[in-house]
Hints:
This protein has 112 residues and is an all-beta fold.
Amino acid sequence: VQLVESGGGLVQVGGSLRLSCAASGRTFSSDGMAWYRQAPGKQRELVAIISPFRTTNYLDSVEGRFTVSTDDAWSTAYLQMNDLKPEDTAVYYCKHLGLGVWGQGTQVTVSS
């Protein structure tokens, strides 16, 4: 399976972005997926997770601002990010939870 991410970029404080993670070869339907992020000098942290039953969990600091979802076919996952803050600046990665495969990462920069 290969995961291809898109949607990162530069946005001002309070703005929004939507990240996408397209899976080829095997969808997320059996295992779910997760979004992580890694800021410079920090460890990679779990941001959001969606299970095959569509239950979701979020990092406390993004709860209420970020939403993880997938399309009906579970082939593309999304991370809708609203009310972005400078501390959200990081490289964001998606991960296939069954196979442990990572996307290439996409940079999100929030300017104040």
